[in-house]
């Protein structure tokens, strides 16, 4: 089974420090500002959203293909909501927004497969502790 690796290095205090996350394709800076404000750089929640969007898109494409509906294109955004809670900062919601081009499929069938992909993709399964994961799926021509 595949083992995937990412790295993170943090230096300094919470608010004045900075860090780098490393993926197989490079390193990306992050900081307090990029995580909790609107500063430059990435953050763990953005990376989580990218992973979720990618996983969902692949799962939806695979499910549609198995059902006899080859996909032309699937585009997905993941909006990861980070909020303060009594337990501290938490991911409280993830919105998956997807648009798909799938020839010869009706909307009800498409939405059924999209819902299944949302519930069963690997990253959704790993995120069962997130209180709410929503889906807005559109079939486009």
Question: Which key features would you list for this structure?
Answer:
single chain, 141 residues, alpha+beta, GMP Synthetase, Chain A, domain 3, 3-stranded mixed sheet, 4 helices, 6 strands, 36% strand
The count of helical stretches stands at: 4
Poorly predicted runs are none
> What's the CATH H-level superfamily name of the largest domain?
K homology (KH) domain
CA-atom Rg in angstroms: 17 Å
Give the SSE string: EEEHHEEHHE
**Basic shape:** elongated
> Per CATH, what is the topology of the largest domain?
GMP Synthetase, Chain A, domain 3
Mean pLDDT across all amino acids: 94
Layout: helices, strands, pairs:
Elements: E1 7-11, E2 18-23, E3 26-31, H1 32-36, H2 44-66, E4 73-85, E5 88-101, H3 107-120, H4 122-126, E6 133-139
Parallel strand pairs: 5-6
Antiparallel strand pairs: 1-2, 2-3, 4-5
Describe the structure.
With 141 residues, the protein is an alpha+beta fold. The chain folds into two domains: 30 residues, no CATH class; 96 residues, GMP Synthetase, Chain A, domain 3 (2-Layer Sandwich), CATH 3.30.300.20. Helix content is 33%, strand content 36%. The strands form two sheets. A three-stranded antiparallel beta sheet has the order 1-2-3. A three-stranded mixed beta sheet has the order 4-5-6. β2 and β3 form a beta hairpin. The chain starts with 6 loop residues before the first strand and ends with a strand.
């Amino acid at each position: 089974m595949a083992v995937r690796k990412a790295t993170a290095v943090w230096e300094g205090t919470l608010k004045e420090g900075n860090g780098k996350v490393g993926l197989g394709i490079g390193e990306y800076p992050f900081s307090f500002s990029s995580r909790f404000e609107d500063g430059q750089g990435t953050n763990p929640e953005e990376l989580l959203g990218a992973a979720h969007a990618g996983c969902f898109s692949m799962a939806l494409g695979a499910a549609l293909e198995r059902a006899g509906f080859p996909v032309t294109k699937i585009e997905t955004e993941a909006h990861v909501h980070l909020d303060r809670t009594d337990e501290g900062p938490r991911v409280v919601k993830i919105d998956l927004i997807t648009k798909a081009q799938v020839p010869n499929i009706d909307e009800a069938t498409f939405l059924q497969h999209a819902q299944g992909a949302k519930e069963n993709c690997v990253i959704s399964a790993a995120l069962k502790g997130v209180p709410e994961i929503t889906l807005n799926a559109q079939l486009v021509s």
